[in-house]
């Protein structure tokens, strides 16, 4: 990768490399765009095959957060951090506190949170060194684990997408094929089960599958078979890029709505879904519940307020994406991008007056 050429092509603002030999910290913070406000995005810990792969992931995820935050109506930009390491054995207080000091050094340009491979307790350690962290333990006035709220947003977005196809947003009797039964998907399955949906599930974690079978009366299939099952809704909730040349021809679903990030392997796959007449709920629109929830912490967390915003914003945004798609005869992923880009550009090109002391969205937290 020609790094500066890549940064220029997608208009990134900053890439920060963080190293602490004593703790073993090797991390990358990518800040894509702060037009709307400070960059908010989680810290992912993963066993990357190479440093180049880690950089690419940080950049891709940061740009995705810009679009997610903008489309969700948040006054926040997009950023992401990746920590190179095995989350099962490489974590330590020293590592996360070193990471927190790097975040504090950015003076509010980047606000972190938990992500794949990190937890609320990890963020509590980061908090020892920085004010710019969300998703910490509730005793610190935070929202805690965002997974249930993300799941609730996906549930609401799924209802909006189903309404377009079936004329009603009821999920009773609908067959939903759920790929991956992690924390978000498990909470999503509970909502679906309670409304009377029929579940088909798969995961490489057999214990997670068995739990869903027992608690939600779900049918289990091999991970390779989830794409071709007879269903109304395919819900990708595991790794990204599951919508690709190999899987899309197998799909029998009329709706795709799930929590996974980067569900399309390439933009052409969004075009393929559009041509097949499948209603695709764009990932960063439907899975924005978690970021809406942690963003509420910046104003003093109020769970009722956050949940109301998740419910109304995601349902409305899926309806809006579908309406633009139909009006302009474009795939839904392009309609989603249009919503985000128009909001960013409206602020970027509006007149700004000089202020000696600029506005800061986040005041210093007490210890």
Automatic annotation (TrEMBL):
Entries under PROSITE patterns matching the protein: GLFV_DEHYDROGENASE
Taxonomic superkingdom: Bacteria
Domain Glutamate/phenylalanine/leucine/valine/L-tryptophan dehydrogenase C-terminal: 144-352
Keywords, ordered alphabetically: Branched-chain amino acid catabolism, NAD, Nucleotide-binding, Oxidoreductase
Residues forming coiled coils: none
Record-annotated active site: 80
Pfam family, one: ELFV_dehydrog
A single GO BP: branched-chain amino acid catabolic process
Binding sites annotated in the UniProt record for NAD(+): 180-185
Enzyme Commission numbers on file: 1.4.1.9
GO terms for MF: L-leucine dehydrogenase activity; nucleotide binding
Pathway: Amino-acid degradation; L-leucine degradation; 4-methyl-2-oxopentanoate from L-leucine (dehydrogenase route): step 1/1
Substrates-to-products reaction catalysed: L-leucine + NAD(+) + H2O = 4-methyl-2-oxopentanoate + NH4(+) + NADH + H(+)
N-terminal signal peptide: none
InterPro entries found in the cross-reference section: Aminoacid_DH-like_N_sf (IPR046346), Glu/Leu/Phe/Val/Trp_DH (IPR006095), Glu/Leu/Phe/Val/Trp_DH_C (IPR006096), Glu/Leu/Phe/Val/Trp_DH_dimer (IPR006097), Glu/Leu/Phe/Val_DH_AS (IPR033524), Glu/Phe/Leu/Val/Trp_DH_bac/arc (IPR016211), NAD(P)-bd_dom_sf (IPR036291)
Membership in a protein family: Belongs to the Glu/Leu/Phe/Val dehydrogenases family.
PANTHER family recorded: LEUCINE DEHYDROGENASE, VALINE DEHYDROGENASE
Protein name: Leucine dehydrogenase
Natural source organism: Niallia endozanthoxylica
